[in-house]
Amino acid sequence: MAAGARAVEAAGAGLSGEPAGSITHDTLADGAAALLTIDLAALRHNYRTYCSLAAPASVAGVVKADSYGLGAAKVVPALLAEGCRTFFVAQLSEALALRPLIPATAALYVLNGLQPGSEALAREAGIRPVLNSLPQAIAWAAAAPVKAAALQLDSGMSRFGLSESELAALTGDSVLMGKLNLALIMSHLACADELSHPASRAQLAAFKAMRARLPAGIPASLANSAGVFHGADYHFDLVRPGIGLYGAHPVAGQNNEAAGSPLKPVVRLAARIVQLRTIPAGTAVGYGHTHKAEGPMRLGVIGVGYADGWLRSLSSSGAAWFDGVRLPICGRVSMDSSILDLSALPEGALKPGDFVELIGPQQPLEQVAQEAGTIAYEMLTGLGRRYERRWTGAVS
Ligand SMILES: *Cc1c(COP(=O)(O)O)cnc(C)c1O
To answer: What pTM, to 2 d.p., does this model score?
Structure first.
């Protein structure tokens, strides 16, 4: 097999079950500059992994922000096929778009709660708000029939959820309490990605104490993807993973390409070489001339830049990979392209149209995020619209 074919296999086709080298430079639709592969079989594996980690608690799917950029229209059916029956999005508009894909017997919650005045829209669409404040609870209870909702408690993040005093006001109002139809009591951890962070224990204790002031028997939920790894105390009745389903290890410093990770990577990104050039010593490279060649260099240009979510902070710090060789980004990432230093490869190893790996086994998503000075969540949700996207392992 040619070196290029091996790299393409590693970068895109290998995990899809397609034969090695089946992606060639003329098989991307519309001449796309890069191929984003989303492995739904790996996503389903990750869902099942959460089911076994969290059992007997059940596992929701957090599908906000278009399933972290990976395509909710593909992700939701894959999760439904694995038995997922509770979904969370952030905003009502997202819930309205997804409701037709989700059977009426499955619950769809809006994490951010509702904007004042949109209660009727949610109710009529069969969408459940997360009630994050006393005014939101009052607004939801105002119109009969009062449909099911979740109640969020702020156990120590100061973002969404009722404070101690709001909870006291709610529980003290028996008329309001009598109207509400609470299907879930939830809270959210601020520091779950650091397993030894003391804030998680404190939030767990606060959540339990606040929950105890509400009627018994209402299911509870605290853990996100990382929270599940804190152990059974944190699981309650329902866990709410997002990022872990989408293939990033939720615990800081770990990655899913590493041996022993219980979760599998879901995303591969492979970019095509557009142009090659050789420059003599002293030549400046890219915007701002931030790089000057110390000796003769061989460069390769890819058509992926910050407009594609290939962040500008990767300038002179990130890389692409080919055949086990790291190809550093030389100078600044442009809007639509990046320049790679190919000097570590033998001459002729790459030609225009060949693929290099941007995210994959040689360069895990978590590592790219770190080199960009951010987190996998931001890399995924920022992935651009110009890639050719291929979903493999779809439910048929
Ligand atoms: C986004 C979100 C989740 C999922 O978080 P991950 O870290 O991606 O698992 C769970 N709960 C709430 C309230 C969220 O906002």
So the answer is: 0.93
